[in-house]
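User: Round two. Same drill as before: sequence, then structure, for each protein.

Assistant: Same drill it is. First protein:
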Amino acid sequence: MNFERVTLKIATALVVIFCFIACDEDYSDIGGEVIGNPTEVDYREVDVTAWSRKIKSVQTNILPNHLLGAYHNEIYGLTEASILAQVSLANGNPTFGDEPVLDSVVLNIPFFSQAVEDAEHQYKLDSIYGNAPFKISVYESGYYLNNLDPGSNFEQRQKYYSDQQELFEQYIQGDTLYQNGNYRPSAQPIVSYEPTAGGVESDTVVSPPALRMKLPVEFFQQKILDKQGASELANNDNFRNYLRGLFIKAEAVNNDGSMMLLNLAASGAGITLYYKYDRAPTNEEEETTRARRSFKLNFGNNVVNTFEGEYPDEVLQAIQSSGSQGGAENLYIKGAEGSMAIITLFSDAAELEELKQNNWLVNEANLNFYVNQDMTEGVNEPERIYLYDLNNNRRLIDYTYDTGGSNTNPLNSVTSHSTRLERDEDGSGVKYTLRITQHVNNILNKDSTNVRLGLVVTPNINITANAAVRGSENDTINRVPLTSALTPLGTVLHGNRSEDEEKRLKLRIYYTETNE
C-alpha cells in the first residue's frame, strides 16, 4: 500500500515536470523577458521610411581621438585623414641649463594596443584599418587655432571642421620636418634611452607600439632651446602664437594605405627634445660636466582632423535620389567624412492612429537592419551601429534602459538594445538588431512624439555626445554623434524599398492584447 502511494506521487511529479517542459517550449524570450501565456502574443510588421544623407563636414576639434592615414573602402572609395595639432609647453618659461645642445627630437603617439598574454613585450594593435603603406609628412603650421570663437565674443569654443584641409595647407611654413613615403603601423615595441636623474647615464625603456618619428634637430634647436628666457616661451599663450602647430599629412600610395586611431592626449604622446647641457659642479672638487636631459612638448587642446575623399558617383547618386517621400532601396552609412541613414517610423499616419487605439502591451519592437551582402563582399564592416533621436540629438530611452553598459569593453556594451553585427560562418555581415520597445510603447500608449531616428556607424557606442555639422543636404541635420568620425568603416543596409522582401526594413512589433 505504501509502495502504491509512493508510485502515485512519483507519477504525479513526472506529469507536472513534463507539463512544465511542454509549456516551456511555447514560451517566447522576447527582448530578454519571458512572456507567460504565449497564445496571446501577436506580431505585426509596420512600414517605415528610411533614406541616406551625405554628411559633408563635421566638427572635429572636439573628438576624443583622431584618425591618421589612408583607407580604401571597396564601396565608398578612398579616405585620407590628416591632423592639425596645437603644441604646448608643459610649463611656462622653461630652463634648459647652460649651453644646451640638442641630440635628437622624437615625436611619439602611442597606438591603441593590447599586450599579448604570457609574452613579454609583444603587442596586438587595435583600431588599425587596412595594412598597406601610406605617405606621411610633417610640417610646421602657421595657422592659428583659436580656442574660443571671436564671433561669439570669445564665449563659445571655436569650431573647426573636417573639410578645412585646403585652408590649413595654405599656412604650411618652411621645409618638410619629416617624410616617409612608405609608412606602415608596426606592432613592435618602442625601445628608447631616457636620461637618468643625474643626467650622466641613460635607462633603457621599452614602451608599447607607437607612431614614432625623428624630427630635425636644427629646427627645434633654433625654435626652442635657443629661445630660453625669451618672451616666446614665457607662457602658453605666447608659445601657441609663436609655434602655432604641426600639420601631419597622410596620403595614399597607389590609391591604398592604412589608417590608425590615435589619442594625442595619451600618456607618452608628444614631442621630446633630448639634449646635453653644462652641469655646474656641486662642490669645489668637481668640474663642469656635460649631462643629458629631456624636455617634452605636449599636444594642445585644439586638434583638428581633416578628411579628404569623394564617394563614387553611383553611390552619391543613390544617396541623392533617396528621400523622405519614398525612402530607399539601400541605406549607405559610413564614418569619417561620412553618411548616415534617417528613419521615420509609422510612415502611414492613419495606421499609426489605428495602432494607438489598440491599447497593446508592447512586448518587443525592433528594427532588423540587414546587410546587403551583394554589395559588401570583401568589405571590412563595422561591428556596431548607433540609433538615436535625430530631432533632439539624444539617445533613445531603450539605450538608457539597457543595463549592460561597459566602460571597459564598449564593443560588447548596450547589446540588448543594439546588437553587434551578426555574421555568417564565412565572416560576412548579416544584420544588426535594434530593440526600441519602450520608444515604440511611448509613441503608441503615451502619446510621445514620433521623432525621426538617425543611424550612424560607431566604434564606441558608449560615447553619445554630438558634433556640429555643416553643408548637409536637406533634412536640417545640424549635429551628428561624434563617434561616427572616429572610424573609416562603412556598410550598405537593405532599406524599406529593398527588392528582397524578407530583408526589407520594417518595424516589427510583438504585442499582447489587453482587455481595456
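Second protein:
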Amino acid sequence: MKMTVDFEECLKDSPRFRAALEEVEGDVAELELKLDKLVKLCIAMIDTGKAFCVANKQFMNGIRDLAQYSSNDAVVETSLTKFSDSLQEMINFHTILFDQTQRSIKAQLQNFVKEDLRKFKDAKKQFEKVSEEKENALVKNAQVQRNKQHEVEEATNILTATRKCFRHIALDYVLQINVLQSKRRSEILKSMLSFMYAHLAFFHQGYDLFSELGPYMKDLGAQLDRLVVDAAKEKREMEQKHSTIQQKDFSSDDSKLEYNVDAANGIVMEGYLFKRASNAFKTWNRRWFSIQNNQLVYQKKFKDNPTVVVEDLRLCTVKHCEDIERRFCFEVVSPTKSCMLQADSEKLRQAWIKAVQTSIATAYREKSDESEKLDKKSSPSTGSLDSGSESKEKLLKGESALQRVQCIPGNASCCDCGLADPRWASINLGITLCIECSGIHRSLGVHFSKVRSLTLDTWEPELLKLMCELGNDVINRVYEAKLEKMGVKKPQPGQRQEKEAYIRAKYVERKFVDKSSISSLPPEQETKVTSKGCEEKRLTFHVRASGHFKSNDSGIQQSSDDGRESLPSMVSANSLYEAEGERQDPSVLLDSKHLNPGLQLYRASYEKNLPKMAEALAHGADVNWPNLEENKATPLIQAVLGGSLVTCEFLLQNGANVNQRDVQGRGPLHHATVLGHTGQVCLFLKRGANQHATDEEGKDPLSIAVEAANADIVTLLRLARMNEEMRESEGLYGQPGDETYQDIFRDFSQMASNNPEKLNRFQQDSQKF
C-alpha cells in the first residue's frame, strides 16, 4: 500500500511532515465537499425520479381507464391493457433502480463520510492537541533556569512524556491518513460499480420486456393498417348509403318512417304511440310500443324493462275509436282492461290495427301447433333436461448471499422456469427466480410473493437463514405436487405469457397443490384430546421463578430445571388427537396430513418444520389461526415457544400479526421475554411489536424483563422505547431511528442468527407474572 505520509517523517516532526499533513488535510476537506455534493445530487435525482414514476403511474392509470371504456372493442381494450401492464412493469423497474441507487450511492457514500472521515477528523483533533502540548513543553523546558534543579527535572520529565504521547498519537494519525487514502478509492469505486450494475439490471429488464412485446406490436401495426383500409371502405359505403337515402321521396309513404319491424328478434311491429292514462286526469303520454312474443308492451326509455299492456293477444280485440275528440285513436280491449292508443296518422293507425289482428291469429296458430306436438309424444323426454342440468353444474449482500442461497438443492435454477443462475428470490416463499419470473411474481402482490435481489439488496441474517431452510425443491414438492398427474408442463425460459398463466395458477390459484391432504374434520374435532373415551383438559402453565409450573385449572405442579426448555414442551400442541366416532390408541398422534391446515401450521411452527409450515400455507392455512383449545395461541406464539428465530421470521414474512395476543393478553413479544429469547425479542421489535401492551395481570414486556433480570432484553426494550419517544418528539414517524439504535439492533440480529450461544446468558428461570 502506498503511504501518503511517511511514518519516519512523522517521528521527526519535520517541516516536510507538516507540509504533507497540510496537503492531506486540504485534500480530505475537498473530498468531503465533493462527496456531500454528490450525495445531495443523488437525493435530488431520486426525488425527481420518484416524481416521474408517480406521474407515469397516473398516465398508465389513464390508459387503463380508456381500456375499460373501450370494453366493447376487443382490439382496443386488449392492446391498451397490454400496454398499460408493460408500463406498470417499467414503473416497477424504475422503482427498483431508484432503490438500488439510494443504497449504492447515497447510503454507501454517506456511511463513508460519517464513519471514515469522522475518524480522520477525530484523529486530527487529537494530533493538534498533543502538538500544542508538545510545543508548550519544549518552550517551558527551554525557559527553565539551570540553577533550579527541581524545575529542570520537572520540565525534562514533562517534555519526555509529552514527546512519547506525541509520537504515539502522530503515528496513529498517519496510519488513519494512509488507511483513508487507500480506502477512499475502494469505497467510491464500489459505490459507482453497484450503481452501474443497477442500471445494467434496469435496462436488461426493459429490453427483455419490450423484446417480448415487440412481436405483438408488429402484429398490431399490421392489423392497424388493415383497420385503416377497412375504415376508409366503410366510410365510402356509408356516404353512398347516405346519398341514396337522401335521394328517396318519402312524401307518399311517411308511415314507413314512423314504425319499424324486426322479425329477427320476434318483433312484429314497433313505434311511437300516445297512450291515455287510466288515472282520473286521463293524460296522454308518448311511449315506444312493440308487439313481440304475443304481447303488447311499451317502454319510456330503452334501458327500462318493458311494461306489459296485454299479456296474451289471443284474449283481446282491437277496434277503431271515433267517439273521442282526438284523431287516429284505436283501442285494445282484454277481458280485464282496455288501453286507448293514438297513432300519428291514419295510415299508422291502420297499420297498428292490422298488426295486432295478425298477431292474434298467429298466436292461435302457434298455440295449436304446440299442443299437437305434445300430443304426439307418449312420454316426456328427459334426456334434454338432464343434459341441460348437467351443463349448468359444470445483512448479507452481493455474491455472498447469492452463493449461500444457490447452494441449497434446486436453487441453482429458477423455481418456475428452470433458467440457470437465478439472481432474484421470493423471501416469503423461500425460492430463487430468474429476472423475468421475478417481475411476474412482483405483479402478484406482496401478499403472494415478496421479491428481492440476491446481488443488489442487503440481506438480514435471519432472512438469509430462512432462504437456506427452504429452497426450490422443498417448495415445488408442495406447489407442484399434482403437476405430473394433471399433465401440465412447466414453461420454458422466454415464454412470458405461458409463465404468467403458470405462476398465477401455481401460487395464486394453487391448482397443482395436492388438496387431498386437507382435513375434512371440523377444527373443533381436530383439536380435541381423547383417551379411552374421557377428554383430558389442556393445562395452561405459568412460569415461576422457583422453576415450577403451575396450572390455571388445578393445583398440579411440575418441577423443571430449566424453565426456558420445559415451558414450550408443556404448552405446545403435542397432544393426542382422534376424530369423532373413532377410538384410537391415545399414545398415537394423527398424521399431519389429516389435520386442518391451521392446526398443521400451528404444530409445525412449534416443531420448527418449515416445509410443513409452507405446505399448510399452500393448503390455505390462516397464518394467524388461533387455537381455541390452547388459550387462542397462534402459530407465531408456538414458534416462540419452539425457540426458532427462523420460524418466526417465516411467519412474519407471510403476514403473521406480531401483536395478536392469546386469551391471557400475551403476544409473541410477551412470550419471548418470558422465555429469555433475546433474538426473538429483537426480531419482534424490528417488526413493529407493541411493547406497551399489557397482559391480564397488567404487565408489559419491559416489567417482565426487569423482574427476570434479563439485561439484554431490558436493554433492547428500553432502547426501542427511547427511540420511539425520540421519533415522536421530533415528528419522524415511519423513520427507522438513529444510527446507534440501528447498530445495536443489527449487532443483536447478527448474534442471534450466527452466534446464538452468546445470548444464552439468562440462566435463571423466568418468574411468574
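The domain at 7-215 is CATH 1.20.1270.60 (Substrate Binding Domain Of Dnak; Chain:A; Domain 2).

User: Perfect.
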